[in-house]
Amino acid sequence: MSRPAFSARKYLRSGLKLPFCPGCGCYTVINCFLRAIYELGHDDLSGFVFCSGIGCAAWIPSPYFDADSVHTPHGRAIPVATGIKLARPELSVVVFGGDGDIAGIGCGHLIHAARRNADVTVIMVNNMVYGMTGGQVAPTTPLGARTTTTPMGSFERPLDVARVVAACGANYSARWTTAHREELVQAFKRALTGRGFRFVEVVSQCPTNFGRRIGKPDAKAMLDWFKEASVPLEEAERLEAEELRGRIIVGVFADRDEPGLLDRLKEAYGR
To answer: Does residue 17 sit in helix, strand or coil?
Structure first.
């Protein structure tokens, strides 16, 4: 007997309306993630626990996924997820958060979870601003981009989060945009089936609090920008820094299968 065709609604709680603005990239992230779940053969989310902090992307799993989930204080989803995984190692523990939540407020937790190779999956939706609170500058805001707190343009270089996570020792680290739907599905599948720390950065559109301030007022304009600006990692390594200014480097920054934190603890304690 063949499985029913994929439908995201199968994995969502009924009667709840998603809270995102029109054109928000979170819709694409949800669809691609749940498609990956479906393609991996999961008919429900009973084997998963989702953790999130504060921000637009933190609303992706909770309360909308038909699954167990934990909302944490701002920036604290990763240590909570690590604790859940240590207590219940049989569960797949997944963190959703935005760039402000994961790479700003929670950057220390991100770095040390990658260093420990903690056995959780982290999905960071990078809309390049603090979108939920009004569009303030974030650690991932492009140099020169206008935000509500940088009306003359950001004077700070953005944090290259996927590369930092890879350098810290994560088993898997990848970056794609919401214009790379198939690549996102495959990245989610790889992250969900590996061990150790697995990280997927999704560069996502925010027409409401970012796009309109940089001359890209709707989702189409931002997606067109992602397509034009994206450059594969392999090609980027052959380009000079000046040639990469304003580009979005996409691809897989790390893909290893080294022992994770759980493996090392089991080895030390014999169980």
So the answer is: coil
Alpha-carbon distance of 123 to 176, in angstroms, equals 11
Task: Answer whether the bond into residue 61 is a cis peptide, omega within 30°.
Answer: no
Query: Which stretches in the chain have pLDDT values below 50?
Result: none
Element (H, E) at 83: helix 77-87
pTM for this model (two decimals)? 0.96
**Domain spans of the chain, in order of start:** 25-269
Tell me the C-alpha distance between 212 and 215, whole Å: 5
Strand spans (E) along 99-218: 121-126, 129-130, 136-137, 172-177, 198-203
Q: What is the pLDDT of residues 183-240, one digit of tens each?
A: 999 999 999 999 999 999 999 999 999 999 999 999 999 999 999 999 999 999 999 9
pLDDT over 70 percentage in the chain = 99
Amino acid at 254: A
Q: Are 40 and 192 in contact (CB under 8 A)?
A: yes
CATH code of 25-269, in short, is: 3.40.50.970
